[in-house]
Write a structure and sequence with these properties.
single chain; alpha+beta; Ribosomal Protein S5, domain 2; Alpha-Beta Plaits; eight-stranded mixed β-sheet; 9 helices; 12 strands; magnesium ion binding; GalKase_N
């Protein structure tokens, strides 16, 4: 058993399937080339020593003393993974962990899940703890839910740990069944344009938790285990809850539609579903902000086949399916629209589907 190593895990972009994961629904993310890298070394003194190239200071705590609240800030995502593993009886001892984060922060690209996933892979492999990647995703989710206090679903950690290069990950968040569906736009002359609006992406301000409570309350009123179990969007519910239900039901349908199109090699036809998703997130789920809406409008006006916000909302990124030849024109249209509204300048780049978490230098099987 080696005592040290370097591990990395990617951020993610969700093609479609937003706010469905905590409703036992379906999601379709890809992993990004942007990674969080963790350099890990076992320690014999039972101490967890955490540092980051992107932050000042060092956090130290004895692993035996780990409880929610014992570590705060970025280090809580790391310590939480060790805590969750120990809570479930896995013999994780002391570690020195140096983090180098290359996933844009605050952009809704799941830098936190990438950090958790890289940590989980590092400490379990170096400790000789044999857990499959679905189990690691669940551990990482528990860390974020119970140690950090963010009530996220399991999509982000699953994408970071399970994704394959040039494929999208179709995930049933209830059964954890997965299917790797080809997603390679270049042969079709297409690109996935990402617009980081720079509108801060915050999920701990209560709005994300409020949407989750709405969904659980609606499921309770309708007598179903989760909104995934509904087949129709029209329900006898208060207006706000009815709109939340309509989004989840129709979003699951859109995931199925996009997956079918990708399986059939009809990637050019997924655009309308992306745009429909954004409208639903804006009107029924109410998680967009002006920067997201303006970006989508500008992209569609510039010729994008479809565009939507991606991630939890309230800031972050927009994605658009565009012809490769139109990437620069679409990016310029967004910049002009933002300048006209007095927004800060967005950052635009194209994304490809990358591989999931790995030991650095190791090329996963395709």
């Amino acid at each position: 058993m080696t005592r040290d190593g370097v591990f990395e895990a990617p951020g993610r972009i969700n093609l479609i399937g937003e706010h469905t994961d905590y409703n036992d629904g379906f999601v379709l993310p890809i992993a990004l080339p942007h990674v969080v890298r963790v350099t890990a070394a076992r320690r014999d003194d039972g101490v967890l020593r955490l540092s980051s190239r992107q932050a000042h200071g060092v956090a130290e705590v004895r692993v035996a003393d780990l409880v929610p609240g014992a570590v705060t800030g970025w280090a809580a995502y790391v310590a939480g993974v060790v805590w969750a593993l120990r809570e479930e009886g896995h013999p994780i001892g002391g570690f020195g962990l140096l983090v180098d984060g290359r996933v844009p922060l605050g952009a809704g690209l799941s830098s936190s899940a990438a950090l958790e996933s890289a940590t989980a892979l590092a400490v379990t492999e170096l400790s000789g703890v044999g857990l499959d990647r679905r189990e690691l995703a669940r551990i990482a989710q528990r860390a974020e839910n119970e140690f950090v206090g963010v009530p996220c679903g399991i999509m982000d950690q699953s994408a970071s740990l399970l994704a394959r290069e040039r494929h999208a990950l179709l995930l049933d968040t209830r059964s954890m069944e997965t299917e790797h569906i080809p997603f390679d736009l270049a042969p079709a002359g297409l690109a996935l344009l990402v617009v980081d609006t720079k509108a801060p992406h915050r999920l701990v301000d209560g709005e994300y938790a409020a949407r989750r409570r709405d969904c659980h309350r609606a499921a309770e009123l309708l007598g179903v285990p989760a909104l995934r179990d509904l087949t129709g969007a029209e329900q006898d519910l208060p207006d706000r809850l009815a709109r939340r239900v309509r989004h989840v039901v129709t979003e699951n349908e859109r995931v199925a539609r996009v997956a079918d199109l990708l399986r059939a090699g009809r990637v050019r036809e997924i655009g309308p579903a992306l745009t429909e998703s954004h409208v639903s997130l804006r009107e029924d789920y109410e998680v967009t902000v002006p920067e997201l809406d303006v970006a989508v409008e500008a992209l569609l006006a510039a010729g994008a086949a479809g565009a939507r916000m991606t991630g939890g909302g309230f800031g972050g990124c927009v994605i658009a399916l565009v012809a490769e030849a139109d990437v620069e024109a679409c990016a310029a249209a967004v910049r002009a629209a933002f300048a006209g509204r007095g927004f800060g300048e967005p950052e635009c780049w194209t994304a490809v589907a990358a591989a999931g978490a790995r030991r650095a230098g190791h090329v996963p099987a395709r």
